Amino acid sequence: MEDVIIIGAGPCGLSAAIYLKNEGYHPLVIEKGNIVQAIYRYPTHQQFFSSSDKLEIGHMPFVIEDRKPRRNQALSYYREVVKRQNIRVNSFEEVIKVEKQDDGIFHVLTKLDKNLGEKSYQARYIIVATGYYDHPNLMGIPGENLPKVYHYFKEAHPFFDCDVVVIGGKNSAIDTTMECHKAGARVTVIYRGSSYSKSIKPWILPEFESLVKHGKVNMIFDAEVTEIKEKSVVYMKDGKTSEIKNDIVFAMTGYHPDQSMLESMGIAIEKDTGRPVYNPQTMETNVKGIFIAGVIAAGNDANEIFIENGRFHGDPISQTIVMRDKAASLI
């Protein structure tokens, strides 16, 4: 029997584990990839928007030469946190079912990586900290499932001398475009918005605008991709359909949390916002004993919760669990 099982070993899940350890608990973290899997999937040379101190967890300093860390520095930092804090993490194990039994205990069923079978656990409390980066927002258009379509960008070198279409107009689309251009790709950006997103990093936008102005990048506003073909992309702008030559597509259309997983646990979801129903004072959902931590609490608005504020969710969660257990011990 586990006291607490945390689903997801991102920064917010790891931080919640540390808060609980500080209260005398020894939580088990179950992660379907490896620790901070979402950060691992960032572009190789990605630099964070946040300064390193805003990414710290467990009062462990994140010291680097530059103010804003890069992906590899963050990976190293969180690995060190797990080692120093002695956090129990079961990596490459996916939670496939959480069921509350009549006695209030949760039965957790997992699937091991590489078809190595299943495992089951029992726990008194569950914390869901699964993030949202695993589930891209699909466009629902023909050809979206072609092998040349990517929803994540890692590195630009393979796309040298290729005709690349980037769909989207926010930070991930801009970063992808600039990296592909530097690697010698011919890039067209297709964005349904009428102007640049206000969320674009301010130190990047001037350079990107210069590339567009000088014809190095083809930027198409107020347009929507309607079909992806083997050798081309079809889009519509001002009611007119156009088709351009294409080798590779990066559909940087955002991501969303796995709401089906939450609903299977009995957690209610607000239809308009996609938010799980929870108490913001305790982070407990409508299912007693199940808490949420990190960006999953924001529903469809991933710009509301980041590492820098989601890392504190473990504090009210741990305090709620401590108080509840103390009250139960007095009965």
TrEMBL record:
The keyword Flavoprotein applies. Signal peptide: none annotated. It holds the Pfam family Pyr_redox_3. InterPro entries: Bdr, FAD/NAD-bd_sf, Ferredoxin-NADP_redctase_2. Its cofactor is FAD. It comes from the Bacteria. GO terms for molecular function: oxidoreductase activity. Keywords: Flavoprotein, Oxidoreductase. This is YpdA family putative bacillithiol disulfide reductase.
